[in-house]
Amino acid sequence: MRTHRWTVPALVLALTVGQLLVATFARDLPQFAGKAFGARLVFYPLMMLFVPGVWFAVHRGSRPAPWGGFTLVMLPFLVDVTGNTLDLYDRVVWWDDLLHFGNWCLLTLGLGVVLGLVAVRPRWVRAVTAVGGGALLALLWEIGEWWTFIRHGTEIETAYEDTLGDMVLGTTGSAVALVVLVVVSRRSASGTRP
To answer: Where are the membrane-spanning stretches (predicted)?
Structure first.
């Protein structure tokens, strides 16, 4: 049986939207309470489809689509929603920190694949693009969290420290993704398997 390369990102999108629908309409479950799932139901699919949408608009079928990169960009949203569905944010103390690191690593890897970041020269521009872009996305994410559920929620007392930690973890995840991209591209260039 042959599967299309778009099947995996489509499955990631479907699993994310399915959980978002449950979370939006099952507000009385404690793991979903006060976490702006109505807004997430609107914005997560839009953010997940933004990179593929821009890529297809720019390339208009002139290049093969980087489906693996699209999947990596979409995975953090699925991981986030699944963490809420399984109530890991409230039950596992370090879960939020792990995701801010890991999800930014996935996001930066995905963007690096889609943008062909390893081909960018000079190297310092590649580093600034990956790590600086990851830091900017971490900042925008934290602004979104504050706007949608922290400013009027129960987490306002600890928000400052948590936000700073999340931004550092996201930026660090982006730096690790840069290293992974460089190592994998060097191994691919030398003909060895990563």
So the answer is: 42-58, 70-89, 101-120, 127-147, 167-184
> Looking up tokens 């390339």, which residue turns up?
59
Per domain, the residue ranges of the chain are: 1-90, 93-194
Lowest mean pLDDT among 63-67, 138-142, 171-175: 138-142
- Separation of alpha carbons 34 and 193, rounded Å: 46
Q: How far is C-alpha 30 from the chain's CA centre?
A: 24
pLDDT one-digit tens code per residue, 99-134 = 999 999 999 999 988 888 767 778 788 888 888 888
CA Rg, the chain, in Å? 18
Q: Per-residue pLDDT averaged across 57-71, rounded?
A: 91
148-161 per-position pLDDT tens digit: 766 666 666 767 67
